From TrEMBL:
One of the record's GO molecular function terms: metal ion binding
Annotated function: The enzyme apparently serves as a quinone reductase in connection with conjugation reactions of hydroquinones involved in detoxification pathways as well as in biosynthetic processes such as the vitamin K-dependent gamma-carboxylation of glutamate residues in prothrombin synthesis.
The entry's keywords: Cytoplasm, FAD, Flavoprotein, Metal-binding, Oxidoreductase, Phosphoprotein, Zinc
GO cellular component: cytosol
InterPro entries found in the cross-reference section: Flavodoxin_fold, Flavoprotein-like_sf, NAD(P)H_dehydrogenase_qn
Origin species: Sarcophilus harrisii (Tasmanian devil)
Family stated for the protein in its record: Belongs to the NAD(P)H dehydrogenase (quinone) family.
Residue ranges of every copy of the Flavodoxin-like fold domain listed in the record: 5-210
PANTHER family on file: NAD P H OXIDOREDUCTASE-RELATED (PTHR10204), RIBOSYLDIHYDRONICOTINAMIDE DEHYDROGENASE [QUINONE] (PTHR10204:SF33)
Catalytic activity: 1-(beta-D-ribofuranosyl)-1,4-dihydronicotinamide + a quinone + H(+) = beta-nicotinamide D-riboside + a quinol
Protein name, per record: Ribosyldihydronicotinamide dehydrogenase [quinone]
Subcellular location(s) per record: Cytoplasm
Keyword Aminoacyl-tRNA synthetase in annotation: no
Quaternary context: Homodimer.
């Protein structure tokens, strides 16, 4: 799909990890399609995960009581957000497809990626009431989560130890990305790569690359509560 733009937010400390291999496979596949691919390697960038006063350049709207959400909203409207946040927002704005690549930590994303979400997806940029969910700011963009787990696939069912994997995805897919209007593609889950033999690990990477080859033809999930809980 020549002319399409993809943005990968990648969080893993080791380039030779499974997550690193999955990220590299996607970059190769999308580039071969003629897509423009941008990667934010959060650990390599030493991305600041903390949401602080430093995210606002210049004077605060209310210097007596600091409210991060209110101040970043005002700063976004005035063009007064810190340069690292603005740069990441530009990458999102330009993308047709956004991919989050990460290992599942405590049923969520790694802290550095959660910090990216907290700082980059501020009000004004990522959402603006009443424009959210199906009417959200990013309703013309696709998003997909590609992640690895410690447990095997058999663990993540309703009556199993890990619970249904879709329950885990509700706060991330629905509470963050659907809220911002993204059209959500079904997740790409690589289960327990650390416990898999080498041929299975290679198949995980190949399977992801194969899927990405036709990802532009995929239809988003029907992002309502029944998809997650029934």
């Amino acid at each position: 799909m020549a002319g399409k733009r993809a943005f990968i937010i990648y969080a893993h400390q080791e380039p030779k990890s499974m997550n690193g291999s999955l990220k590299d496979a996607v970059v190769t596949e999308l580039s071969s399609q003629g897509c423009q691919v941008t990667v934010s390697d959060l650990y390599a960038m030493n991305f600041e995960p903390r949401a602080t006063r430093k995210d606002i350049v210049g004077a605060l709207s209310n210097s007596k009581s600091f409210n991060y959400a209110a101040e970043t909203y005002e700063a976004y409207k005035k063009g007064a957000l810190s340069s690292d946040v603005v740069e990441e927002q530009k990458k999102v704005q330009e993308a047709d497809l956004v991919i989050f690549q990460f290992p599942l930590y405590w049923y969520s994303v790694p802290a550095i990626m959660k910090g990216w979400i907290d700082r980059v997806l501020c009000q004004g940029f990522a959402f603006e009431p009443p424009k959210y969910f199906d009417k959200g700011s990013f309703k013309n963009k696709l998003v997909i989560l590609s992640f690895t787990t410690a447990g095997t696939a058999e663990m993540y069912f309703k009556n199993e130890l890990g619970g249904d994997i879709r329950y885990i995805l509700w706060p991330i897919q629905h509470g963050v990305f659907h809220f911002c209007g993204f059209k959500i593609l079904a997740p790409q889950i690589s289960f327990a790569p650390e416990h898999a033999p080498e041929d299975k690990r290679k198949e995980m990477v190949t399977s992801w690359a194969r899927r990405v080859a036709t990802i532009w033809d995929e239809k988003p999930i029907h992002c309502i509560s029944s998809w997650y809980f029934e």
